[in-house]
Amino acid sequence: MKNLKSLALVVFIAFLCYGTVSYVNSYSKSIQPTSFRNFSVSAEGKSVSIPDVAEFNFSVVTEGGKNVADLQKTNTEKVNKAIEFAKSNDVDKKDIKTESYNLSPRYQYYECKTNGVCPPSEITGYTITQSVSVKVRNFDKIGDLLAGVVKNGANTVSELSFKLDDPTQAEDAARKEAIEKAQKKAEQIADAGGFSLGKLLSIEEGVSSPVYPMYSSGRAESSKMMLDSAVPAPAIEAGSKETTITVTLKYEID
What is the distance between the alpha carbons of residues 62 and 81, in angstroms, rounded to a whole number? Predict the structure, then answer.
């Protein structure tokens, strides 16, 4: 038993010494000059691509009296008609999404009387606004769709933009260029400063992928006037899209 206790004591002391040495080594490393001797470089990479998806919103606004059921029926019929038109022009069901549905009251306000009594406001009717987003993959159909949804019940068309359905490939190309530029810059700085690059400590990334609005219609009345006057559907050009990625590399100085 005495030998066992002695052995246990030796093992305990050994573990205690090992823990102490590990802590001292870690602490010593953290305060070495090399842990503070580092520098960062930043670079930008760009990738130019052709958008493959267009997206726009259309809204149906219906105003009426206090019969909400009738308003909902009228609004729904107009929205469904516009959606069916979009589907008939090569727009897939999965590319049509309801963005918002809003029912709001309209009030009649009365002036206060001479005795200071102010009559309460009164609800005179309701307004329903439903907005739908549409993705278009056949760009030849964009102009017809913008004009057609208005002919089929929409009050406004807005926020047309061009995007990449999957930006991964464009981002990868921009990222690769940014990292290569940053690495080259780091090597040049190290050479000019007379020191060697140590290990890479961290990478930070920022992505800039702008969307360019191209078209927005006015109020419902002006839209209908344009269509009734036989004005042709607008010609739409997608152009190109630039994806930009900025990377910051932090290196240890040897």
Answer: 14
